[in-house]
Amino acid sequence: MNVNKDLQNERNKCSFNVRELTEFIDGGKNRTLERKHIEKLILAQKDELFGGTPEDYLSHKEKYERAIQTNVIILKIVQDFMRDANGGDLTNYRDVLTTLLNFVVSREGTPFALHFMMFLPVFLSQADEEQQMEWLPRAWNCNIIGSYAQTELGHGTFIRGLETTATYDAATKEFVLHSPTVTSYKWWPGALGHTANYCVVVAQLHTKGQCHGIHSFIVQVRDEETHMPLAGIRVGEIGAKMGLNMINNGFIGFNHVRIPRRHLLMKHAQVLEDGTYVKSRNSKLNYGAMVFVRVVIVFDSVNYLSKAVTIATRFAAVRRQSQLKANEPECQIIDFLTQQHKLFIGIATCHALKMTATKLWDTFNEVQQQLRGGNLERLPELHALACCLKAVSTADTAALAEGGRRACGGHGYMRSSGLPQTCAVLDAACTFEGDNTVLLLQTARFLVKVWRGLDTLKLTPTVAYLRTTLTEGFNDKWDNTVEGIIKGFQTVSMRKISECVSCMAKRMMSGMSQEEAWNMTSVQLVAAAESHCRVIIISYFHEEFVKVSSSFSPALRRVMKLLVELYTLYWALDKLQDLLKYTSISKTDTEQLQERYEDTLNALRPDAVGLVDAFDIMDEILQSTLGAYDGRVYERLMEEALKSPLNAEPVNRSFHQYLKPLMQGKL
Amino acid sequence: MNVNKDLQNERNKCSFNVRELTEFIDGGKNRTLERKHIEKLILAQKDELFGGTPEDYLSHKEKYERAIQTNVIILKIVQDFMRDANGGDLTNYRDVLTTLLNFVVSREGTPFALHFMMFLPVFLSQADEEQQMEWLPRAWNCNIIGSYAQTELGHGTFIRGLETTATYDAATKEFVLHSPTVTSYKWWPGALGHTANYCVVVAQLHTKGQCHGIHSFIVQVRDEETHMPLAGIRVGEIGAKMGLNMINNGFIGFNHVRIPRRHLLMKHAQVLEDGTYVKSRNSKLNYGAMVFVRVVIVFDSVNYLSKAVTIATRFAAVRRQSQLKANEPECQIIDFLTQQHKLFIGIATCHALKMTATKLWDTFNEVQQQLRGGNLERLPELHALACCLKAVSTADTAALAEGGRRACGGHGYMRSSGLPQTCAVLDAACTFEGDNTVLLLQTARFLVKVWRGLDTLKLTPTVAYLRTTLTEGFNDKWDNTVEGIIKGFQTVSMRKISECVSCMAKRMMSGMSQEEAWNMTSVQLVAAAESHCRVIIISYFHEEFVKVSSSFSPALRRVMKLLVELYTLYWALDKLQDLLKYTSISKTDTEQLQERYEDTLNALRPDAVGLVDAFDIMDEILQSTLGAYDGRVYERLMEEALKSPLNAEPVNRSFHQYLKPLMQGKL
Predict the structure, then answer these.
(1) Distance from B468 to chain A by nearest Cα, in Å?
(2) A337 and B523 in contact by Cβ < 8 A?
(3) In whole angstroms, what separates CA B1 from the centre of its chain?
(4) Gap from A159 CA to chain B (nearest CA, Å)
(5) What residue in B sits closest to A665 (Cα-Cα)?
(6) For residues B622 and B104, what is the distance between their CA atoms, to the nearest angstrom?
(7) A190 is in an annotated binding site
(8) Separation of alpha carbons B168 and B269, rounded Å
(9) Which of A30, A141, A289, B109 has an alpha carbon 20 to 30 Å from A269's alpha carbon atom?
């Protein structure tokens, strides 16, 4: 391979073993080998997967057709591999899912994501055993493709307000699904447009003249042979979006569609043949699937951010622009401190969020065990944690990817860079599966409840610091170490929650209702929940690093320690107003933090390319003119431009039709 | 018109006369009438302009063809109107330009923008009289369409590094244009792909064996009759981008292309027939066109932001979601304080930036007068001001439009909302005509120079506060009024510049070169330049409001005063860390600011829809399912979805080809 000289030079001077870090990121040597094996299988079908006109030049309809073509191939490869690797057993669910998500080769998503991310998990958590026996094998094998229809045109966040009805008819032992208004049309479900033939539908359950709130039903949408929509069903796709145009988001409306009684998912609540409604033991049990999905979103966001920083960092090493000193050759833009400031935090964030999400995933599995034993104690905490972590992770990764994109200048605006599409995916994640502001307010609600019961409640681990920080006081001498900063953030979070509570109390004293006071304080509540989340992420990152670093070689330990340091300093400086307001940090301390931050950027500079190489994203997955491993940036930009169908003719027909008459004054 | 009830209700309760504000925004009653007249002319050609498949479903090539079709029609309407209105005189340049930019009906830009925004202004400022006589009339009438080719694949920011050469051949009295490398290909010029037939090309001028740096040349690119590229020229479009796909950005390479000597633009520097180079009087004179373009960018950014806030605010009034109180009907989301926090600052920003840009524009014209008189005194200040104002305006409008987009939840991700395209235009502006980071560093360089000469230099108006703030001291008692906050920001800016200078001095003392110290301090320098810009914008907004408000009715004065207040409070809270670090503001003060900010949001709430109605953007320009005047949000979303060609068939062909074999295990 003919590698750009500057990029090669960066690799030569890297201080640590890149493969060692790659294996750590993958979760072990075997995982890396496994991944590389799948990559080989994908490359074997390179022509069919990556040939033809680039997707960015296609029409909306052509993009969908391309998406089906390539994603069917990928899905088949992953399925076969997992089946072989696990002796026919596909039940290691997170493996299948993350492997699949890692190998999305269409830059605007895959129509099969929802089948694995929502349809199957919801089914697993809400169908009873008999239903699982009936449906799961076919769903696992993709004999049917499912979607998950909850959101409606008129309702997203507030699911209690959903309008779709499922009314039980005891005479025929069927539910009648109906969409009474335009706003009750389901809107957004991935794959639902023209791909899925089954769907879990969330609707208001009515029986014996009473409404029992929302429940989930499995509904066949299209004929399995002809794929034609079934009678009474109006289904289609919702149209072009900012990104993710290969997800095939759809709408669906029901005109008195009848489904059998047993299509209500009955693990928790049931409707008996005569129409009697049997309540769920605990309505909070459904939180499980939501927590699962939100953790997956954090992992997936890290995935996309690592693409963005790989592209932007390699480009910054290849791009030469301006002189640091007069009469010297132009420098690599990665030598500019402002550029390091934009990029390196992105690298650190990938590790910080991945370690946090892994820990959350483990906690999730523990709590699942406890749930099975009937212990619901940690469920609210886990839910609150997943809410804020999803919100902060998606917001941070979206902002940092966008920062990386802009750091590539104009070329980052080219779709051939892959950056606009990557940013658009991360952007969507700020909204889907719970709007970030709404999620942070849910976390805030939990925190306020904890704060109000601080004297009496047994505190679960992630909020225990609220009491200790309060007891130990926050006026301790400030300490500029990572541990000191974490303590500072704990104080900030504690004080913010405390102030929100006081502020609401004051407002209620002056005559506001509790709800009005909550609303008037909500901007501060959102900020408090974010602060809490920063405590969790920074302290998890630090703790996990300390835990795993003993297994690292000294060189890797050194560079990872720099990343932990960088991450902590970055957020200390970003949230300086909080530290200044709530802790005893001095102006001199802040100046030292700033200087140490600048020095840390410099210390990371020589290893930056090595750090993104360690993400080990192959060119065919990265799909970027700016970020390919060999650094042939300019040649690739030109090659991709020449593939534009507009460039196939020297003169476009619109010249004769419109432009020439205009120029010659004959219009 | 059947208007959504909630929206109508908002309009009924608006406290001020919307038309009064509209006329103020337009710049007078007559301007409003003029605009409405052009709108009528455009609506008369509604079918041809807005019919057919929505542009979001088209392929890249089809988008270009649509762009030419619609923009030729619009251009013709504006031209005819301006000619009639000005008795054949089209020289009121800013009018033509802003009118044209206001009426861009393609959501991804117009291929004619560059002709007016760059080609003509550069020509006006760099061509000598004879050249202007020869070319201008044809350019004014669009008999030729021009582009401006400066940026190359390998060089954007650092124009001294451009590689394209123009070598004078005294024997034939011609320049030979040449692109020696791939990286020397011009890349990005709008309209250059398949639209423009002329182009101003920036190249390194060589004569008599010497290089004299970059100069501008006018070059014919395509035959006027056939539109075929001329010999030796390789031209095409650069491919799909994140947005602005109707701009038709192009690339061009020259293979020893010969152009006459008089195609060098000779207002400032000349090459005589024998090849003698005659230097420009002052190399800074070219700053004029750059300042002009940057002011236009600020106006245009405001334009796009006002679209985004119109859409998001109207949607927030129509959308009902969740309950503020249990058992009440669902509330309009505009009632949530978090929503007001996201939207109202956008409305205030439109006014703040527009007033600032107007003042900068007037200053620009004054300085142009002085330049003609040989007085270059204010040029560096003006240049520094235009740099930071372009950077801060584009960054703010991009962030606020994106915030507004996200505030619409999932629907803001739909292209039919118009928001993704609007955000993508604003995003591009952060990079084009000077990357924002680079521009802020240019302002910083000016500020550092001023600071170092504080005792001796005569200070120009926009930096005079540096001395007065220093002299009057910054430890005065803090004052929470708008004036007090402005004074606080002046102190912050002064202190930051001062600290940057100390920091660099310290680094140089410890052995760094001046350039290294500059680079290591550049993150802080960028922040200092931003602070300076905040001083300018907030104080201009405040001053201009005080100046014009006497002509407002009391009701309008009240609401505009709230906007000034909101804008100031928002930035005080956003930049609290600076105020805490550098002024005597107390924690109690900050709490009062927060409370006043929340109260101001509430006070603006009833007038929010009126405020965006006052931007008076007609539906055909706004092109948004979420933002149309009548608020038929959900019906429009569905109507637009149904226009997707993918929805024309119930089953897509990819089902038979790929999906069915997969589902039936026959792949």
Answers:
(1) 24
(2) yes
(3) 34
(4) 9
(5) B143
(6) 10
(7) yes
(8) 14
(9) A141
Q: Which residue of B has its CA nearest to A240?
A: B415
d(CA B178, nearest CA chain A) in Å: 18
Q: How many C-beta neighbours within 10 Å does residue B273 have?
A: 10
Say whether B338 and A522 touch across the interface (CB within 8 A): yes
Whether A66 and A58 have beta carbons less than 8 Å apart is answered as yes
Among A72, A238, A515, beta carbon nearest to B641? A238
Residues B178 and B181: their CA atoms lie apart, in Å, by 9
Phi/psi class of residue A651: alpha, beta or left (left: φ > 0; alpha: ψ in -120 to 50)? beta
Between CA B17 and CA B23 the distance in angstroms is: 10
Tens digits of residue pLDDT in A329-380: 999 999 999 999 999 999 999 999 999 999 988 888 888 888 778 888 888 9
User: How close A266 comes to chain B (CA, Å)?
Assistant: 26
Which sign does the torsion angle of CA A288, A291, A295, A301 carry?
positive
Q: Name the stretches of chain B with pLDDT < 50.
A: 90
Task: Give this prediction's pTM.
Answer: 0.97
A:B CB pairs within 8 Å:
357
The answer to whether the beta carbons of residues A137 and A127 sit under 8 Å apart is: no
Q: Report d(CA A15, CA A606) in Å as an integer.
A: 8
Nearest-CA neighbor of A519 among B420, B227, B331, B107? B331
Options B163, B381, B433, B640, the catalytic residue: B433
* d(C-alpha A323, C-alpha A334), whole Å: 12
* Dihedral sign computed on CA atoms, order B107, A407, A534, A25: positive
B433 is catalytic: yes
B151 marked among binding-site residues: yes
Contact criterion met (CB < 8 Å) for B662 and A228: no
Q: How far is CA A290 from CA A95, A390, A432, A440, B551, in A?
A: 18, 11, 12, 15, 56
- Decide if B241 and A415 are in contact by the 8 Å CB cutoff: yes
Which of B239, B335, B663 has the CB atom closest to A416's CB atom?
B239
Which residue in this structure is represented by tokens 């660099």? B504
With the C-alpha atoms ordered A533, A536, A538, A540, is the resulting torsion angle positive or negative? negative
| Cα–Cα separations (whole angstroms), residue A82 to A72, A141, A361, B615 | 15, 12, 21, 57
Check if the beta carbon of residue B531 is closer than 8 Å to that of residue B313: no
| Residues sharing a CB contact under 8 Å with residue B394, sequence separation 6 or more, in sequence order | B297, B298, B301, B426, B429, B430, B436
- Check CB contact under 8 Å for A337 and B520: yes
CB A81 within 8 A of CB A249: no
Contacts A415 to B, Cβ<8 Å: 239-242
Residues of chain B in contact with residue A413, where contact means CB-CB under 8 angstroms, are: 241-243, 427-428, 431
| pLDDT tens column, B501-534 | 999 999 999 999 999 999 999 999 999 999 999 9
Residue A277 and residue A211: Cα distance in Å, rounded?
10
Structure tokens at B213: 């740096």
Cβ distance A330 to B158 less than 8 Å, yes or no, reads yes
Q: Are A308 and A401 in contact (CB under 8 A)?
A: yes
Q: Which residue has the tokens 């939100």?
A: A294
Separation of alpha carbons A481 and A616, rounded Å: 32
Rounded Cα distance between B469 and B489, Å, is 10
Q: Give SS3 for B256.
A: coil
